[in-house]
């Protein structure tokens, strides 16, 4: 017997879990120093969302300058941080929404709308940063946008996926709440028409 049904009440914690994963990736992006790094040795350049650091080829000490001195640096940090704060709020709302027995599906759709706002803020920050960084900061050697910047994009992609699921979840209200019986298919080998 095969039971069909993609949405189920037991699986309701999957979406908050994915939002938690997006939060973890967002924390790594906010705290990581790998937004921009030297591509190969000698490693003379690295940057985070907050500062840009350089050093000479023989020097062991990094010389850092704050990106908050630039208008675009403040804008990139502010938009990404605002998106992250709204993401944390959405995570708390999702936990509350899925904890109660009588799920309010309009409330869930509102969380999906907020997640689209999160994605918009994060994308703005993630686009401003590389465009303005390469224009205003002198780069030394071969550089690449690295792992922390990638975690920022990964968090944004997960948020966009969750936003679609939160917005579409009310369409499967009966399946999620268990109000309808799952469809089962059963075939007996003795009754299969191709065996007679």
From TrEMBL:
Where are its TM segments located? 12-32, 77-98, 110-131, 151-172
UniProt keyword list:
Apoptosis, Cell adhesion, Cell junction, Cell membrane, Cytoplasm, Membrane, Transmembrane, Transmembrane helix
Q: Which organism is it from?
A: Sinosuthora webbiana
Asked if RNA-binding is a keyword of the record, the answer is no
Q: Give the primary localization class.
A: other
Give the similarity note.
Answer: Belongs to the TMEM47 family.
InterPro entries given in the database record = P53_induced (IPR015664), PMP22/EMP/MP20/Claudin (IPR004031)
Instruction: Give GO terms for biological process.
Output: apoptotic process; cell-cell adhesion
Upper lineage ranks?
Eukaryota, Metazoa, Chordata, Craniata, Vertebrata
Source taxon at top rank: Eukaryota
Record membrane topology? Multi-pass membrane protein
Q: Which Gene3D superfamilies match?
A: 1.20.140.150
Which cellular compartments is it found in? Cell junction, Desmosome; Cell membrane; Cytoplasm
Protein name stated in the entry: p53 apoptosis effector related to PMP-22
Any one cellular component term from GO for this entry? desmosome
Keyword Nucleotide-binding present in the record's keywords: the answer is no
Q: Give the gene that encodes this protein.
A: Perp_0
């Amino acid at each position: 017997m095969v039971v069909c049904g993609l949405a189920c009440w037991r699986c309701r914690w999957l979406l908050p879990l994915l939002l938690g994963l997006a939060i973890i990736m967002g924390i790594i992006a906010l705290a990581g120093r790998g937004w921009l790094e030297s591509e190969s040795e000698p490693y003379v350049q690295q940057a985070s969302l907050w500062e840009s650091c350089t050093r000479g080829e023989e020097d062991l000490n990094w010389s850092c300058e704050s990106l908050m001195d630039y208008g675009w640096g403040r804008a990139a940090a502010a938009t990404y941080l605002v998106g992250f704060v709204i993401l944390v709020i959405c995570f708390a709302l999702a936990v509350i929404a899925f904890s109660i027995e009588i799920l309010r599906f309009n409330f869930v759709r509102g969380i999906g709308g907020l997640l689209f706002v999160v994605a918009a803020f994060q994308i703005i920050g993630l686009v401003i940063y590389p465009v303005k960084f390469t224009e205003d900061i002198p780069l030394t050697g071969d550089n690449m946008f690295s792992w922390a910047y990638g975690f920022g994009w990964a968090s944004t992609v997960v948020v966009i996926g969750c936003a679609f699921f939160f917005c579409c979840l009310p369409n499967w209200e009966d399946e999620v709440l268990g109000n309808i019986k799952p469809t089962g298919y059963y075939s007996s080998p003795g009754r299969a028409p191709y065996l007679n």
